[in-house]
Amino acid sequence: MTENTTQPVSVYAEANPNPESMKFVLNSTLLGEGGSVDYPTVESAADSPFAQELFNFDYVSRVFIASNFVTVTKNSPVQWPHLIPELRTFIKSYVEAGGPIFLGNPVTTSAASASAEVPADLSAEDTEISQKVIDLLENYVRPAVEQDGGNITFRSYKEGVVTVNLQGSCSGCPSATVTLKAGIENLLKRMVPEVTEVVAEGVVL
Fold this sequence. Notes:
Mean pLDDT: 83
Number of helices: 4
Strand content: 15-25%
CATH architecture of the largest domain: 2-Layer Sandwich
Number of domains: 2
Order of helices and strands: EEEHEEHHEEHE
Shape: elongated
CATH class of the largest domain: Alpha Beta
Low-confidence stretches: 1-5, 110-116
Radius of gyration: 18 Å
Number of strands: 8
Strand order of the largest sheet: 1-2-5-4-3
Distance between the termini: 38 Å
């Protein structure tokens, strides 16, 4: 279980490329460094009382929790300036009161942890390429994506095609296509010549 302290908590809102998402940054830790948890539905948030409480706001459609921030995605036409004060007050009060963030240890994801998902039946060459891709995602791509309130994880590599999973603010972001193709795909092609394309799982580009 994540421990909270009783020190005063500051929370500030930070915009990101997805106009439907807002990143709320805290001066306290919500989750261990390097991990993140994405809750696309209230049902998926069964292990997080904090996320469940956020879903009680009828305009909240997705919750993404990382080390010191939570990204909230809305499904309402109401603009963020009208919603931020309410969410910021709730987050500050909840964390200051020592409310539980998770029940037990959450199953977190990161580009690095995905290395365990590399299939054992891949050829030695494909396994090596997969590991190179994972290292690049973890060291170069993920920090930038996290800065925007989201996360990216490696899913697979096959015949030149890298499949990734976008989470948090990156999921459903209008600029995700540009980020994926102009940014991530170009980087991986340059650093790993065997890569010919990068696609996002469940995202229609």
